[in-house]
Amino acid sequence: MVELHDVEMKEADPSNGSNSTTVTKDDKKDANTLTLDDIKEQVRTIEKAVNSKEPRYILRVLRGLASTRKRLNEDIIRRLILFYYGSNSSEREILLGFAQSVAQSMDVDMEKGNSSPAPVVSEKQLVSRPHTSRTRAASLPEVDLYIHLIVLLYLIDRNSLKSALDCAKRLVDKTSVLNRRTLDLLSAKCYFYYARIFELNGMLDSIRPFLHSRLRTATLRNDFEGTAVLINLLLRNYLHYNLYSQAQKLVLKSVFPDHASNNEWARYLYYLGRIRAIQLEYTKAHQHLLTAIRKAPQQTAIGFRQNAHKFLITVELLLGDIPDKATFNNPQLKRSLDPYYQLTLAVRAGDLGRFKEVLETFSDRFQQEKTWSLIIRLRHNVIKTGIKMISLSYAKISFSDVAQKLQLDSPEDAEYIVAKAIRDGVIEANINHEQGYVQSREIIDVYTTREPMSAFHQRIEFCLKVHNEAVKAMRYPPKKYNEDLETAQERREREQEELEYAKEMADDEDDF
Q: Of 50, 379, 389, 472, which residue is the least packed, with the fewest Cβ within 10 Å?
């Protein structure tokens, strides 16, 4: 049997509380150091991209910028600036001034709740002796832009818009005087946040001349990523002020680069879908919006997918289709799409009264989301759906009853709307104008019509389009075509070695 022994329990040491506090501080310090080491590694990757002239390394750094942005704080920004700009006093003081402007506003809020003074760290303790590698890294324009970009993101996240505006102007001024292909991806990212700062400050219309001039320069330099970003920024600028005609002219007179990233393609197709929807080209708008949602990131970019789905649902309703219910049950979309779910139920039921109630309830939200001008067009679709349901329910019905069920003003309006529905092919019926009624025809088999063929044609066309886009999106390792092919003698030697290795493996199995 197993004997049980009493174990003496020791009293807890009251000093453990201070130890836990120390561990927490050390963990925070280690987290800042790890983040700074990650940024240093990203800088080395940028140096590697400049030396090898391979932009894919810079693209790798920019992909990790989102995770780095979440971990930025004042200590990391200060140490980063002092590490790379130890010998460049002018740049160091300017960047430290940006970081200090955020720190001062935060100190004012902290002094209200805590009277203890913050620990003072001298710059001499932070600035180490400048090494040759640091000086060489900071002298590269790519590294300089990347550090400025990190400072700009820190200012945006801390809502220091005035300092962010000054930093963004300095950042763009640096890109304007340089002409290096390794700067293309970084410059495109700088243009994006430059426009974002002006949008947050309510001055988005003031940067159109600058964006047009940079678009001309990027097109002449074959800067594909910069061209894609600038076209999207201009389209966003025009659509923000409802300038759809100018946006359409820009689309017609510019060529969106095929080599742009998926994110830029998703943005471009989203803006293009909105333009086509306003111009009553609902089929093209539906294709563009659906492709934009498919190209967008599926786990992140929740706000983009929410806005794209709002326009997609509205366009599907305008086309006479009912959106899939699974779209409204998506946890990431359910709350934001609730007004559009109510709208879909009203259109599906053909209930004009419920449709008006939904418009009155969510009119402010629809106007804020820029879908109001499309939603008010759905009234005709609601009436068409109601007429179709009446035609299926009644073999013969008077225009006065139709007007009453559809909540129309008079039987004459009902007669006109029913006649238009018959002409458009919505229902199969005959109108008796003398006696004032409509009589439905016998329902024919849908498979004897051309409707199934058109539905299959649409699906096949969509599948072929997805296949072609997948083929275009394929990427291959660079410079593989320069590798020498093996000769016949080398191939025979390789086959002989493989044969001998197979025999050895067989002998080993026999021995086992």
A: 472
Q: How many CA atoms lie within 13 A of 229 on its CB side?
A: 20
- Output the six-digit token pair for 56: 């894919």
Bridge partners for 439 per DSSP:
396, 430
Query: For the CA atoms of the chain, what is the radius of gyration?
Result: 33
**Angstrom distance (rounded) from CA 40 to CA 81:** 12
From residue 427, alpha-carbon distances to 200, 430, 468, 496 in Å are 50, 10, 38, 76
Inter-residue contact 239 to 274 (CB < 8 Å): yes
Collapsing DSSP to helix, strand or coil, 429 comes out as strand
Structure tokens at 211: 């964006």
3-state SS, residue 398: strand
Dump pLDDT digits (tens) for 14-38. Answer: 445 445 444 455 555 578 788 888 8
Instruction: Give per-residue pLDDT as tens, 26-78.
Output: 555 578 788 888 888 888 888 887 887 777 788 888 888 888 888 888 888 88
Smallest Cα–Cα separation from 214: which of 225, 203, 199? 225
Residue 147 backbone zone (phi > 0: left; psi -120 to 50: alpha; other: beta): alpha
Per the listing, tokens 């047009």 go with 212
Cα–Cα distance measured from residue 358 to residue 370, given in angstroms and rounded to the nearest whole number:
16
Closest of 269, 258, 228, 259 to residue 56, by C-alpha? 259
The span from the CA of 58 to the CA of 144, in Å, is 13
Q: Residue 321 CA to chain centroid, in angstroms?
A: 26
Q: Smallest Cα–Cα separation from 310: which of 268, 366, 355? A: 366
Secondary structure, 3-state, 134-154: HHHHHHCHHHHHHHHHHHHHH
Q: Are 345 and 354 in contact (CB under 8 A)?
A: yes
pTM of model > 0.70: yes
Please provide the DSSP assignment of 433-448 as one string: TTTTEEEEPPPPPGGG
Which residues lie closer than 8 Å to 440 by C-beta, 6 or more apart? 391, 392, 394, 395, 396, 427, 428, 429
